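Minutes, project check-in

Agenda point 3 was the complex the collaborators sent over. CS summarized: two entities, 1064 residues total, and the question is how they sit relative to each other. Sequences were read into the notes so everyone works from the same version.
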Amino acid sequence: MKDKMIEGKIVKISGPLVVAGGMGNVNMFDVVKVGELGLIGEIIEIHGDNAYIQVYEETGGIGPGEKVVSTGEPLSVELGPGLIGTIFDGIQRPLKEIAVKAGNFIPRGLDIPHLDRNKKWDFKPVLKAGAEVKAGFVLGTVDENENIVHKIMVPPNIDSAKIKKIESGSFTVTDTVCLLETKKGETEVKLMHKWPVRIGRPYLRKNAPTRQLKSGQRVVDAMFPIAKGGTACVPGPFGSGKTVIQHQLAKWADAKIIVYIGCGERGNEMTDVLNELPHLKDPYTGKTLMERTVLIANTSNMPVAAREASIFTGITIAEYYRDMGYDIALMADSTSRWAEALREISGRLEEMPGEEGYPAYLGTRIASFYERAGDVVCISEDERQGTLSVIGAVSPPGGDLSDPVVQATLKVVKVFWSLESQLAYRRHFPAISWLNSYSLYYDNFREEIEKKMGTIWTEMRRETFRLLQIENDLIEIVRLVGIESLSQKDRLTLEVSRLIREDFLHQNAFSDIDTYTSERKMFLMLDTILQMNEKGRAAIDRGMKTEDVFKIPAVEKIARMKYVPENELKQIESIKDDIKGELDRLERTEA
Amino acid sequence: MTKEYKTSAEISGPLLLVEKVDNVKFEELAEIEMDNGEVRRGQVLEVDGDRALIQIFEGASGINLKKVKIRFKGKGIEIPLSPDMLGRVFDGQGSPIDGGGAIIPKVIRNINGNPINPYTRDYPSEFIQTGISSIDGLNTLVRGQKLPIFSASGLPHAQLAAQIARQARVRGSKEDFAVVFAAMGITFEEADYFISDFKKTGAIERAVLFINLADDPAIERIAIPRMALTTAEYLAYECDMHVLVIMTDLTNYCEALREISAARKEVPGRRGYPGYLYTDLSTIYERAGRIKGKKGSITQIPILTMPEDDKTHPVPDLTGYITEGQVILSRALLKKGIYPPVDVQASLSRLKDKGIGKDRTREDHADVFNQLFAMYALGLEARELAVILGEGALSEKDKLYLEFADSFDKHYINQGEDENRNIEFTLNLGWKLLGIFDKAELKRIKDQFIDTYYKSEQVEKLQFKAADFDQEL
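CS then shared the predicted structure for the full assembly.
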């Protein structure tokens, strides 16, 4: 790379945008070191001899005349063992190492290797010398932790090669473990390699997603499910619980690996995740959640340009694990902050603004990010399947969904969880509106679900949606003319819908038991409530009043269902019989 | 000898363009000497080759392009720091204005600070008792939190902030404690209210005040919160103090930012505020927090006034996205004679869950909170219904909810300006109000707590103390 080193001089500084002269020979999107401090920046425009650089660190104290050196490489991440369980900043510098080196605050111009250079990993080859390989072939594995087998693959940019030498034993990420003979000569394979963040990692082909990504959140799994390899967005005003939902998904989604990007959000929220994950157990593997999580933190007070990069850093890491044939879920909180970073840089470049000052290419950028999600067949020896699901939070000003970022996002995502402040005010969490939200995936995995839950499940979902819709209409009527005008059956609909809302859709993220619900429990809960609907209706037909029907003790038990532990689900199963018995008894006493 | 430039080329608003400069750094401090000898200060906003754009803090009036002399100081805005700052009052440039001598600095710091590494943050979880039920009980404040007060013109945010500053304590601790107060563009009367309140209660001994009044240069408002926070960081992380930072009024701060942005001819965002308003505000708010291994902490109570009581205005909106909750004041409650008029439903403390419960407040806190909240919501619905259909049309249940909501407003939210309630009182008060419901109605409270507290002796003997409030609502 030495021959590519190009040195220029700073001409202009305006916030995170620096212009340097004498840079005519650099490549677009190359990373440069800016000024005496060596701040990290990226070239985003070239005009003749001048390069426009967005700098990922604060630019105070930098002046014209200082040098700018090109590294000759685009912004890249290091991919290899050691990613899991680590917290990085927006350009993949490990925050723990920064703290060790620089203390409690993040200074500028720190140059720290992204992956630990000293740690040794046990490499176990699966192929022998002489084997013919192609891109994506697994050469060997490293146990990254008890949970994750990290596959060391032939990098995507190598067409075909023959293994000349392959070694087993203990290596650092920069040691060569394998020597490949290609047409162009020999290539060393190390435990880690670099990949430019703005270029999606290649795959063989993409499929329509067909499996559900379970989240343990009832309103999500039952009403608005997301697919493995699918995309979802969570827009909502502040205080509506976007971050709690993202955290819940990061904790309980049944993905092999979670990549969580805190993009321009609160520092304490990242601390919260960091504190909690090591203590929580993954319900699917029994290991701690930290052992399957990669964290990227660019908090709101960290440099704005790095925020723009953080989303790409995260998704490139996610794609790398996808290529190993795993199911990955990526959460980005919040994509609005990322879009604002785009807007800020665009403004400094004096580009013609589009809607609300956002650049005209906002929609394209958002689409190109979400399109990196998918259910893919990886380039590999065994056509293994990997999925990458992307869930983005959006923070529209004032919760207004006409915001350009929301609108551009809705064009590309298939699941929309609409958060409403009215629900949040009533402390109904997750505040996902059952009237406005949608998921376009249910039919993709309907067969799979029906195989497990029975065909009745589709029917139950439909009935639930129907009841909630009718409730909404009835409430309007009650507002206008009072509850007296409603028939007994309509009143029953109101009461049952209330059970659905309060005892099924409402879920307490801070309760040890209610924070996660298995499919079985979810089914039993909804089944019990719908039983109440059915039996209640029959009772009214026989002349009873809604008020009395809802006085039976079983209603109390329905309210406590969510706090029944997973290993005592019999308690819920028995409520159905209670409902029948108690209603029969009630009828007898009234008669 | 620093170079002096007489090459000023343009003035527009508070911005001065100087040409043919050499070796000027971004965000460097500059001195502007006028021909009458007056020296003003400014900061470099942009450097383009040999042209530097300077933002003048005291404004550009009276500057003559031909005669003005510019000197660059080779450093950004700095503030001298020392524990002796406690008890002192400073202006927007960090110079004392209380008649006392200059501060002999222990250290000098750039006011911009560096972001706290999220890895070294300590999650805030220590309960701060403010003595105000609507905050302690429902929107609990913890050490290291940033909890703004969303107010509007004519609402008693100043009284509330002063009361919090007076009463805030961490229970059972005698740790060092300080208040840093930053006034941005507020009136003399409002500033005087705080200063005399601090003096009256002796709090001034433990306070550092930065004052920029409404008629002081708007540009100084940009630097003042950062000076206050740099001081707070020094006191917290180097002098081991627990610092409460009160900043008022952030809306004025944002307007000053807008003014500069407009002068720089930047592409405006919503309502003319610059597109980077969020980022800029976060560099203020995110300086609250705790750091692992440090004794001190920084808790922020920023105050902002919502133009037209509009919560979706960019200033409250972006603030809400950064801070850890908000306390919203309501004009309707104030009109009913309720102080502090906290709109409980719209207010929120995001960090409350980790700050309450056993060993922090009391084991029943979370359940009581949920129950009070649920009942109050039902009460408000009933109140709304009563407005449309008349009270007579309410069901027995709804009437009970309405009664609850009324007494909740009257006894729980409402309290005296000098009334300092401890957390036990606040919690028992909640139980007392819930006493009008049947046990079985209290679905959100665990049975064990109902057994201990529901209509218990300590709850029953409790007297409502709303000091100067006895007339019917």
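Noted in discussion: The CA atoms of residues 17 and 345 of chain A lie 7 Å apart.
Follow-up: revisit at the next meeting once the mutant set is ready.
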